[in-house]
Amino acid sequence: MSIFAGKSVMVLGGSRGIGAALVAHFSAAGAKVVFTYSGSPDAAAAVAAQTGASMVQANSANRDELIAAVAAAGALDIMVINAGIAIMGDPLALDADAVDRLIDINVRAVYFAGVEAGRQMNDNGRIIIIGSVNGDRVPSAGFTAYALSKSAVQGIGRGLARDFGPRGITVNVVQPGPVDTDMNPANGPMAKMMHGMMAIPRHAHADEVAALVLFLASPAAAMITGTTQTLDGGLGI
Ligand code: NDP
Q: Which of 37, 137, 144, 172 makes a 20 to 30 Å CA pair with 72?
């Protein structure tokens, strides 16, 4: 029997990319999975149909909607806060509202979803935040807003690890480098530049990120908390 059989798992942003892989892996491992989506109802429906997971529309940029969705999931064993967006470009030219929206989704939502998950979470639960190697490293121009958001979630992870640790709940941040998704396609315009910075010059597959998340969610990882776990093919070394 799988170690995740009967476990209650929530994935924020499960309709596409890394989140869809997380839903698939946890579902295949026997967990009861609910995932959120916002702008991609057809993709969400396809993930739900393929995996048997439940889907709920909740915009991470809307604090009340997000908190209500997390509260409705009840006593979780595992929460993965994956929903995120990227905007890149010269900060002198970036639209201020777009930057605020990024902060809403990539930072504020991570804080409020993490707190709400912890409120009802079972003892020995797991909270895993999908950050980015850009939380540690900014190897090219145009990433200031995104890097700000991914550095901020490191603090949220460390703080919640302290707050919830007495209940055996671990909180960790997984920091991918380039992963082949809609956000950052392996054949996209920046791929060659990114590969040039990496020891292993290729995009990761979303399944490779999911494998690390499932390890952190497992009983074997009970003493790993407050950490950042980087999976970037050596981009940040
Ligand atoms: P995708 O753009 O492929 O997928 C993003 C997912 O997040 C979708 O399911 C989307 O749902 C959801 N999402 C986005 N905005 C919202 C919102 N406002 N409310 C609810 N859900 C939302 O991205 P990735 O899979 O590549 O990225 C997932 C995470 O991994 C992000 O946090 C990203 O920053 C991080 N990451 C990605 C890397 C990469 O190279 N791909 C590298 C490092 C980190 P919907 O479409 O339904 O709105």
A: 172
Per domain, the residue ranges of the chain are 8-231
The chain-wide mean pLDDT, for the chain, equals 97
Condensed to tens digits (0 to 9), the pLDDT of residues 41-55 reads 999 999 999 999 999
Q: Mention every residue, 6+ apart, whose C-beta is less than 8 A from residue 150.
A: 106, 131, 132, 134, 135, 175
What is the pTM for the complete model shown? 0.98
Is 146 annotated as catalytic? yes
> What's the pLDDT score for residue 2?
84
Residue nearest to atom 10 of ligand 1 (CA): 13
CA of 162 to the centre of ligand 1 (A): 27
Q: Given 2.30.40.10, 3.40.50.720, 3.90.1170.50, 3.40.50.300, which CATH number is that of 8-231? A: 3.40.50.720
Backbone angles phi, psi at 15, to 5 degrees: -80, -25
Query: Residue 7 C-alpha to ligand 1 middle, in angstroms?
Result: 24
